[in-house]
Design goal:
heterodimer, A: mainly alpha, Cytochrome Bc1 Complex, Chain D, domain 2, 3-stranded antiparallel beta sheet, two-stranded antiparallel sheet, 17 helices, B: mainly alpha, 10 helices, globular
Chain lengths: ~450, ~210
């Protein structure tokens, strides 16, 4: 057997160059990773000061005036809706907020020292609202709408803190979130925040009336309207939160209509009084709140004072229109068979309240003819309404509402599709027809 | 008021008089306190039926009380019961449990609380006759699993947990086959003292919300 040939110089060079290249590449990747990690870390600390040593709640009880103000502001922020379980102690947390990434459980906001905010300072509370960081330094999930609450002023945050501190303490430990990997990790959250969150604050626009500025503060801040009324990207971040261009609420699967166009839920062509009435009473001459908005009126906006409701209305009326009127393409004619089937079903199940002419009965049953909630491009809300029925919220201004029966036990999905197609295309209405598949989709909780 | 509660009629029948043929219980003529507390239970998560919770989610105690009062005050005839859905031995077992209970196993007779005519007792105890068998089965089952609850001490949960699957099936089969006597109105009071404390009855007597 011959001895192995001595390696040629060429191979030696190639062998030694290989590891060098790899080392260089690895170094470059490492540098890039460190740079990204530093950027993420730095962006997550943007404008944030650490809590002082020995930080904790003041020993003196909160001032009554601040408590009262805080209660009002907590209503404006609708804190209670998420931080209270059905039938549970107010503000004691435990309600599951379903997201496409898993379920986030709300925390206990009562002043219990071990399970609530009892050891929190006003500064820590402000940091949670403004920076989305918990007292112990953990990043908070944006199911807590701090991308909106970051606009809340320190003064208002302090008043809400005082109000929460005045509540009876309830011992109720937080339930651990049930998020899928990797969304449950702090690293994933830090990356998300680096991409989509910056602490805010709204400087008043001097050339706008004070009322408009107040409305903008309530809508973009405490009201967190964008949480539903703005579209979200694949990672669950709202896109163009200030635009309020409408969005499908993940998992809940209701479409929150656009507030910037009169074709959906815009109020630019409504008298201010009617927009105020809708938010205060849940009903107005040209609309009734349903679905998730019923909760907003029931727990939040019905308690706002007239000046704030007018400010919200003024701001919404002045939103730049997203879509010029009269330029929407006309949807195609619906299938004849569906219209005939839908017409028969309508006569049997719907006409008693909504009328043969689709005009409803003022003060009791809403009209369907010309009703923009019926005519939204996406049929999900009209289908959900047929399946689930519903009542407008009971409010001081509208204490004995009429309701609609759920038809999910009464008619099949095919029939729901036909009757939805019919009401969207009878009496001069024109909107895309509804297929049985749309009904299946509306039943599913999309995004899970 | 009938127009305001038309939402209830898709399932509970015209004027709330669902028959024993389907699943949904009749609500017309039930004791007002009972109906009111069931509405609160659905709204506040002590009873679980998503459609009910969805309809009631944004209602005040006051409006729920008014709705309960409206249905309680309706006096409407009952349909005759469907034919029995079990063999005679099971029906006899059901009849005995309803009328005599089983003292050895700590099961009181149903009639001790729900009235000798089983048409319920004012203001908080519901009728057991005039209801679909499937509904009766699912309610006793829900009490056994804790899915249906009342105020503590929850007497029905305690009774339900003493019943075997055969007991439940026998009781529901016998009850669902009984005609509703007379006008079906709830009795003014129970035949004697209740055999165990019932939080729901006490809450209703206080007239309070939980």
């Amino acid at each position: 057997m011959n001895a192995a040939p001595a390696p040629t110089p060429t191979t030696t060079t190639a062998r030694s160059r290989g590891p060098k290249r790899w080392a260089l590449a690895a170094l470059a990747v490492a540098v890039l990773l460190v740079a990204c990690a530093s950027a993420v870390a730095w962006l997550n600390r943007w404008g944030e000061a650490p809590l002082p040593e020995g930080d904790g709640p003041p020993s003196a009880p909160p001032a009554a005036r601040s408590v009262a103000r805080g209660e009002y502001l907590a209503r404006a922020g609708n804190c209670m809706a998420c931080h209270t379980e059905a039938g549970g102690a107010p503000f004691a947390g435990g309600r599951g907020i379903e997201t496409p990434f898993g379920t986030v459980y709300s925390t206990n906001l009562t002043p219990d020292p071990d399970t609530g905010l009892g050891r929190w300072s006003a500064g820590a509370f402000w940091r949670a609202l403004h920076h989305g960081r918990s007292r112990d330094g953990r990043l908070l999930y944006p199911a807590f709408p701090y991308p909106s609450y970051t606009h809340v002023t320190r003064e208002d945050a302090d008043a809400i803190y005082d109000y929460l501190r005045s509540l009876p303490p309830v011992r109720q430990p937080a339930r651990p979130h049930a998020l899928e990997f990797p969304y449950g990790t702090q690293t994933a959250l830090a990356v998300w925040r680096a991409m989509f969150f910056r602490p805010g604050g709204l400087a008043p626009e001097a050339d706008r009336p004070a009322e408009w500025n107040r409305g903008r503060y309530l809508v973009q801040g405490l009201g967190h309207c964008a949480a539903c009324h703005a579209p979200r990207n694949a990672l669950g971040a709202t896109r163009d939160a200030a635009g309020l261009r409408g969005g499908l609420i993940p998992v809940q699967n209701w479409y929150a209509p656009a507030l910037d166009t009169v074709h959906e839920a815009g109020v630019a062509d409504w008298p201010v009084e009617e927009a105020v009435a809708l938010l205060r009473d849940g009903v107005a001459p040209r609309g009734t709140v349903t679905g998730p908005m019923a909760e907003v009126v029931f727990r939040s906006t019905q308690y706002l004072d007239d000046a704030d409701l007018r400010a919200i209305a003024a701001y919404l009326r002045a939103l730049p229109g997203g879509e010029p009127q009269g330029r929407r393409p006309t949807p195609p004619e619906p299938p004849k068979a569906a219209m005939e089937q839908g017409s028969a079903l309508y006569a049997r199940h719907c006409a008693q309240c909504h009328g043969d002419d689709g005009r409803g009965r003022p003060g009791a049953f809403p009209p369907l003819a010309g009703n923009r909630a019926v005519l939204l491009d996406t049929p999900v809300n009209v289908v959900r309404t047929i399946l689930q029925g519903g009542y407008p919220p009971v409010t001081a201004g509208h204490p004995r509402p009429h309701g609609m029966p759920p038809f999910t036990q009464v008619i099949s999905d095919d029939e729901v599709a036909a009757v939805a197609t019919y009401v969207r295309n009878a009496w001069g209405n024109r909107a895309p027809g509804v297929a049985t598949m749309d009904v299946y989709r509306a039943r599913e909780r999309r995004g899970r | 008021m009938a127009d305001r509660v038309i939402a209830c009629t898709a399932c509970h029948g015209r004027e709330g008089r669902a028959t024993q043929q389907g699943y949904f219980p009749r609500i017309a003529g039930k004791p007002a306190g009972y109906l009111y507390h069931q509405l609160l239970h659905f709204r506040d998560g002590r009873r679980s039926y998503p459609q009910m919770s969805y309809l009631l989610e944004h209602m005040t105690d006051g409006y729920l009380r008014e709705i309960a009062g409206y249905f309680a005050a309706l006096e409407l005839p009952y349909a005759p019961p469907p034919p029995p859905q079990a063999a005679p031995p099971a029906l006899e077992r059901g009849r005995r449990l309803v009328h005599e209970g089983d003292a050895a196993r700590g099961i009181p007779a149903c009639v001790q609380c729900h009235g000798a005519a089983m048409t319920g007792v004012q203001p908080a105890i519901p009728a057991l006759v005039g209801l679909p068998r499937d509904y009766l089965n699912s309610q006793i089952g829900a009490w056994q699993t804790g899915q249906r609850r009342s105020h503590a001490p929850d007497c029905m949960a305690r009774v339900a947990r003493q019943l075997t699957a055969e007991d439940v099936s026998a009781v529901s089969a016998w009850l669902a086959a009984q005609p509703v006597p007379g006008t079906g109105k709830p009795a003014a009071q129970a035949p004697g003292p209740l055999p165990m404390p019932c939080g729901g009855v006490e809450a209703s007597a206080r007239g309070d919300a939980p």
